[in-house]
Amino acid sequence: MVTEKQLSALMTELADRLCDKGFKMACAESCTGGWLAKAATDLAGSSGWFDRGLVSYSNQAKQDLLGVSESTLAHYGAVSEETVTEMVNGLLLIEAVSIGVAISGIAGPAGGTAEKPLGTVWIAWKMRNRPSISQCFLFSGGRTEVRLQATIAAVSGLIDLLKTEH
Prior knowledge:
Shape: globular
Number of strands: 5
Strand content: 15-25%
Helix content: 40-55%
Radius of gyration: 15 Å
Order of helices and strands: HEHEHHHEEEH
Oligomer: single chain
C-alpha cells in the first residue's frame, strides 16, 4: 500500500530535479481533485518550481481551461488517452510551464463500466518541445487509495521524464 509519506519523498525528489533544471511545472487534475497541487505546495519554496494546478473536474472545465475539444469528450470520454493528452497539451500553452502532467480517472465508488472499471486512470506527461507520453493505470482500493496512487504515479512519471532531459 502506498502512503502519503512516499508521495512526500517523491515530491521532494521532483522539486530538486525541477530546481536543478530551472523548470516550472503545472498540473491538470480531474479525479485527484488537486492532491498533486497540494503535495507540491506543501513543500517550502515550491513557488520556485511550481507554476499552477488546475482542477478541471467537469467536462466543461476541461474544455474551458485546457482546450479539450467537445468532440474528444463525446467520442472518447473524459477518462481516455485522448482527453489527458489534450489536457496536458493545454497546460504547455502556458509560457512559464516547462513540464506538465494531466490526470483523469474513475476513483469511485460509482462511475465504473465494463470498459472503464473503477480505478481506471489515464495520465499524460509532457515536456516543452517534446511529444506527450500517456499511460493507463488500473488502481485498486477505495476512492482515497485510487486518488493517492494516481497522484504518486503522476509524480513518478514527471521524475522519469526529467531523467531523460539532458
